[in-house]
């Protein structure tokens, strides 16, 4: 296990997910990890769950995977829920909080948003350094075999914005988003196969018009909103 693709924030965008899985296939990776937000915002959550279950070796939960399971009066959320099966809801409920592994003696930890909660958003462009450094901390949620160690490398998602920063404590990487990234469908390959670790971002163009067409054909509630998200207008203004 030395070449790992890390994907995140699919958000029911099946067109983007299919394009990324096709790209990953060509790149000779050993495993695929998914950092959550499989569903929500986009129309085809169930199909995305199916593909993630088929292709990903480890999957953790995001904020949308949690609150999509809650009762709501919101018509758009209700429609999104109506597209998921009981089996989908059960699957989302089983997703663990984090992934941890070693690569060339470095401890690597992956979570959706922060080591404390899938609902704690940390955007290094806007938040002070203390908050960024807190991404390396241990928490009740990350107690494990390695709990005395802090990670050397942290991968996370949630903000839909790629980022690679090095601090004295370690390396921080946001893997971007499959479904709602500002630039193409984006993911990361971490490669430890040469005795050292490299981190590469991969950007996969996909057919946005086809994704929007599929949403329209399904009669998606909140289509206008999705259209704007896919076309960026609402970027950074929404969840
Ligand atoms: Mn998200």
TrEMBL record:
Limits of the Calcineurin-like phosphoesterase domain: 3-160
Pfam families with a match to the protein in the record: Metallophos (PF00149)
Transmembrane segments: none
Entry's Gene Ontology cellular component terms: cytoplasm
Gene3D superfamilies reported in the protein's UniProt record: 3.60.21.10
Domain of life: Bacteria
A GO MF label: phosphatase activity
Alphabetized PANTHER family for the sequence: BLL5683 PROTEIN, METALLOPHOSPHOESTERASE
Protein name: Metallophosphatase family protein
Classification lineage: Bacteria, Bacillati, Bacillota, Bacilli, Bacillales
């Amino acid at each position: 296990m030395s070449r790992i693709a890390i994907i995140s924030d699919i958000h029911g965008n099946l067109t983007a997910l299919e394009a990324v899985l096709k790209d990953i296939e060509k790149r000779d990776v050993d495993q695929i990890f998914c950092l959550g937000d499989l569903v929500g915002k986009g129309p085809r959550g169930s199909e995305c769950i199916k593909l993630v279950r088929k292709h990903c070796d480890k999957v953790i939960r995001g904020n949308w995977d949690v609150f999509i399971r809650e009762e709501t009066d919101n018509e758009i959320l209700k429609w999104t829920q109506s597209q998921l099966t009981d089996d989908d809801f059960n699957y989302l409920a089983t997703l663990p909080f984090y992934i941890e592994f070693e690569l060339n003696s470095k401890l690597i930890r992956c979570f959706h948003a922060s080591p404390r909660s899938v609902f704690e958003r940390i955007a290094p462009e806007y938040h002070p350094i203390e908050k960024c450094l807190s991404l390396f901390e241990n928490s009740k949620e990350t107690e494990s075999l390695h709990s005395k160690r802090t990670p050397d490398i942290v991968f996370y998602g949630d903000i839909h914005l790629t980022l690679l920063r090095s601090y004295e404590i370690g390396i921080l990487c946001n893997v971007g988003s499959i479904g709602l990234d500002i630039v193409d469908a984006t993911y990361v390959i971490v490669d430890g196969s040469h005795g050292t670790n490299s981190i590469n971002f991969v950007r996969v163009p996909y057919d946005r018009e086809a994704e929007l067409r599929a949403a329209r054909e399904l009669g998606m509630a909140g289509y206008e909103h999705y259209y704007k998200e896919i076309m960026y207008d609402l970027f950074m203004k929404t969840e």
